[in-house]
Structures
1.
Amino acid sequence: MMNNLFLIFDPSTSLNFSFNWLVMFSWIFIIPYFYWSCSSLFSISWKKLLKNFFQEIENNLKSHKTKNSLIVTSIFLFILINNILGLFPYIFTASSHMIFTMFFAFPLWIKMIIYLVLNKTNMMMSHLVPLGSPIFLSFFMVLIETVSNLIRPITLSVRLMANMISGHLLIHLLSSISLLGETFLIMSIPLMMILILLETAVAFIQSFVFAILISLYINET
């Protein structure tokens, strides 16, 4: 048994290398399915999922911002694949690390802030004080809105990371019960199946929430 429960999230395969990060490129093996002469059930399911999600993003964005739909859909697909791969035994879960989630959240957030400062400064400043706010509360409203804008990439990253870590820790703890004997093993199997189904749903939901929030932030620029 591991001395440290969080070792299951350690990306290091040795003292000098972190080859576990290579699992992020596993999506490359899925691409050839889209080029089969006869589509499989797997490729048909993915096409329907992507088509529905792409349509959802286009409906969510303003008409002049639909060009960002492809970027948001790509982020959703990449995160979703990494979330699902992390549910398989002995496969590293990249999305459970802050560096992975920050890689998507921070560049997009910085890009939107720079765009607003350079092109829509007046609109950006007017959003700091919501319409109808009392004059004596203006200072506090500016402070609150500024803080909420600054922590957006952090909350976006932590939400995904925390959900993936909590689910994997729960699965690991429950699987450790089976070491106590055959009786506990038989009792834990139904719970493990339910938990894995729940974590599969969480993998989809968190990917969807991450992408939808990004599309909402893009809408505000």
Note: The chain has a mean pLDDT of 76.
2.
Amino acid sequence: MLFSVWLILCALLVFVLSYKLLIRDDDFFKVQGPKGLFLIGNSLDFLKNRVDTFAYFRYHAQRFKELYKISVGSFKCMIVYSPEYVETLLSGIQYHKKGRVYDFLKPWLKDGLLISKGLKWQHRRKILTPAFHFNILRHFYTTILKKCDMLVAQLEPEVQKEKTDVLAFVADFTLNTICETAMGTSVEDSNVFGRKYRHAVHELGMFIYERTVRVLYHSNFIFKFSYLARKQNEHIATVASFRNKVVNNRRRNRCKIDVDSAMANSDSDIAECGQKKLAMLDILLKAEDEKKIDEEGISEEVDTFTFEGHDTTAAALQYIFMLLANHEKEQEQIVEEIDRICGGSDRALELADLTEMKYLECCIKEALRLYPPVFFITRNVDTPFELKDGMLVNNTEMVVSIFDIQRRADQFVEPLKFVPERFMTEPTWHRYAYIPFSAGPRNCIGQKFAMMEMKLAVASVLRKYRLRPVTKPDDIVFILDLILRPQDPIYVKFESR
């Protein structure tokens, strides 16, 4: 066994040496960055816990002005937080290929919209775009509102408590919402199964982090024999079981309707078949009927949308509630805005009300600036990328640090402060300095859905409860993950209004 490990390490060393000698990019190694060691680069910097690794990136973002380089073995990477560089990376299709970190997601998400590239990505994006047409989204409104009412009811017993773990409630809410709207399947009767799914997703994020920072695990051959791979496969099986249950349920109860008519018509009943409402999954099943996508493709997109559609929004909501609990004035201003829109009555919120909630939208946008759930994205630069000093880098991973871009003092006045009013006027910052939903051709396809969901959730909760601070912004310690996650739960105290 030890001899086999020794052979693998020797083979890896030969590979790294050959790689660096044969295709060394001299301009890359001229770029500023933390010093590394011969052959292994900055590999030893990542023999830390997830808290220290997150802090490592923040520390160097303060040291270096626009970008810096790191290397882990043969893996070359540049951390970028200059809006100008980010615009070059994201605005066109030249650098639309996702980076290596996304390769580690493939055992789970396969070739779904998040990871796929080229013609396959364009084809899938074309199939899925109609699902987010406004006249389709409006049909999900009543379902989201019903889930908001359930969230409000579930919080009622928390009024008696000194503190409440916010994520525990909003994660159930967002998973139930995405399953019933996007997949047309209710999972409320199987919340235990839903919690197993969420736990599996969190564990998969940890495994991907571990694989990213451990050079040996970059090799698929080596990784597949590891304990980590066996645990990853167990969690992928849990996710697949959840997904298959959702898809099979919808296959039995699908809504066969003309999607083009649904997009063209805003009548509330156009997307209904008897008692069944149109789901985003129905659009995929229709594409399957037309031979535009196969069963495996549907599985890929359902896995992608279930993950992205619940985990990111749940993370955002916990930060929004925490910020509003710590900013009473802004919280009460939202409530006053809602009271004005509703004429002081307790009537149900209507879809048209959402466009009137300008200040609430500013608060959500400011929360997303400070705490972007997807706090980094990567691109693979396989054609020369020119830096400002004329240097060219190639065959390099570019990591766009959204967290650092959106906290730049040269872009935002008092960047660490919660100031919703900054979104009430024309932006003074670079258009690529605020990108919580990414930007360019590969921006988040579901951002309108997410904003509708967050607005309704926050408005519904604030109409019933006053939020009091427990966790403060300065208390939060982040860990490195796929999503911006705190090390400890975020707590808020709920009081009846």
Note: The longest strand covers residues 67-72.
